[in-house]
Write a structure and sequence with these properties.
By secondary structure, the chain is α+β, with helices and mostly antiparallel strands. The protein is built from 10 helices and 11 strands. It has a domain at 171-239. Helix 8 packs across helix 10 (225-235). Bound molecules: iron/sulfur cluster (2 copies).
Length: 252
């Protein structure tokens, strides 16, 4: 029995060159579009479900698996792989990705991983990159020289990264860092607010919740879905307990 070697992950400096190219002419084309733990961000879901012409609830029901990991504050949304012998992505076909223009961030970025770290100088955020070298991927031998920044730009990741970065203050909110554990209602609200934006718009329109500065129906109508998602990301923590600088939580 052969044992699968571990993924090889190496750090990449900003501007560092590496060779990679992917396309229909590589021998492994679409081989990676299967058996994936592909986490979807709220922005991924918004792009995908609009591309497919689906409302959020239908998209989540058809294409998502929602899992609550023990050590995570909030549930995660994964793209459901098909229950076939290859465990394929529901969007792959012989010609490639059928949702290519709106494919998720993880598919675009591969084989580059991007993260943010806080610098000691003025607490500024700095991008960090890694390169994932998996044995089955022939793209490293297919030619094409690039850098992490050029790869991100070529793959259209700018808006995806912008929305992921907007999620950071929420996911690294002081009360989460202080160990707050949201209850099941608060976990459901997280999913409902961020992954069902059409419902969120309806709730704001119905006056069930108020966005700061968006009290009138007219101003709400002016927000497109992408602006509304940013507003939802800002709004959600206002429903959480207040944190205190001494680390104690005010219960709501
Ligand atoms: S969404 Fe597209 S690129 Fe991503 S795994 Fe599925 S078929 Fe492949
Ligand atoms: S080159 Fe890598 S990313 Fe491209 S299809 Fe092959 S395995 Fe997937």
């Amino acid at each position: 029995m052969s044992v699968k070697p571990p993924e090889k992950v190496q750090s990449l400096n900003p501007g560092e060159k590496f060779n990679f190219r992917c396309g229909p002419d590589v021998s492994c084309f679409t081989e990676c579009c299967r058996a994936l733990d592909l986490a979807l961000t709220p922005y991924d879901v918004l792009r995908l479900r609009k591309s497919l012409g689906l409302d959020s609830a239908t998209f989540l029901q058809r294409y998502a698996v929602i899992e609550q990991q023990q050590d995570e504050a909030f549930p995660q949304v994964f793209l459901a792989m098909l229950d076939d012998d290859r465990n394929r992505c529901p969007f792959v076909c012989a010609d490639g990705c059928t949702v290519y223009q709106d494919r998720p961030a993880a598919c675009r970025a591969y084989p580059v991983g991007r993260g943010l770290r806080m610098t000691t100088c003025r607490n500024r955020l700095q991008e960090i990159f890694v390169l994932v070298r998996e044995d089955h991927c022939q793209g490293f031998a297919a030619g094409g020289e690039t850098t992490p920044e050029d790869w991100m730009a070529d793959q259209g990741l700018e808006p995806y990264n912008r929305f992921s970065d907007a999620m950071l203050p929420l996911l690294r909110h002081p009360i989460i860092l202080q160990g707050w554990e949201p209850n099941p209602d608060q976990q459901r609200e997280y999913l409902h607010t961020l992954y069902q934006l059409d419902d969120f718009r309806s709730r704001v329109e119905a006056g069930e919740l108020a966005l700061p500065g968006q009290e009138t129906a007219g101003s709400l109508a002016e927000l497109d879905d992408y602006q509304l998602l940013l507003a939802a990301i800002d709004w959600l923590p206002t429903t959480w307990p207040e944190h205190k600088s001494d680390g104690r939580l005010n219960k709501v």
